[in-house]
Amino acid sequence: MSSIQPKDRIVVALDVETPAQALALVEKLRGLVGMFKIGKQLFTAAGPDIVRQIVGSGERVFLDLKFHDIPNTVASAGVEAARLGVSIFNVHALGGSAMMRATVDAINAAAERENFTKPIILAVTILTSHDQSSLHEIGLERSIQEQVIRLAQLANSVGIDGVVASPLEIAPLRASIENPNFVILTPGVRPAGAALNDQKRVMTPGDAVKAGADYLVIGRPITGAENPAAAAQKISEEIEQAVA
Ligand code: C5P
Known about the structure:
The chain is α/β, with parallel strands linked by helices. It has a single domain, classed as TIM Barrel (Alpha-Beta Barrel), CATH 3.20.20. The chain is 46% helix and 15% strand. Strands 1-2-3-4-5-6-7-8 form an 8-stranded parallel barrel, surrounded by 6 helices. Helix 4 runs parallel beside helix 5 and helix 9 packs across helix 11.
């Protein structure tokens, strides 16, 4: 288990429409969580300025844009993400080893040239919205778990730092990736007793960390709570107890 502080494991999903809503959540949660996730909705609405503002205010950002394109384009987009000062960004492993390697190489070169801290680069393997039949539809015949592990191993082999993985994938990934520093970031986390919303296969924060997750992406249980700060604090305590 990595030695990250319980609160620093919490990545709050800023799934909101406006920069004002995002910034209000950041203020409420300042000092209580480790990072804020900006995804396609907020980024498309608010652009890179919202990233700059949150990073500029001293908070860490995971830019969840899941890049998937030709190697040169993804590598260049990754460098722009790093220049924004994000702590994590991600790419689709289905983009292939050349795309992932080009991104890792471009980030390493730019970090040295421009003197910035290298962000953690994660790969998305198979989206959890897929099931076996939707994979078959696009010509992927392996079981979901085999496919996830294959893509994670490919990512690891070209220097990607880790993966986004559902709670149920954490243990099989830890068992099959030899790199102990491989980062696992896990959405689909629900504190005991919380509403599932549209999440189907969930784990509690404590169980996910015990299974081997480094970071937990948590949205509505915190952002939809009457008191987001108290909800975040309670989750930190739950993680702390679980790993004690
Ligand atoms: O509100 P909730 O905790 O369900 O938010 C989870 C966040 O993690 C959302 O931003 C969602 O898009 C993201 N996510 C997920 N499941 C995945 C991948 C990402 O819930 N498999």
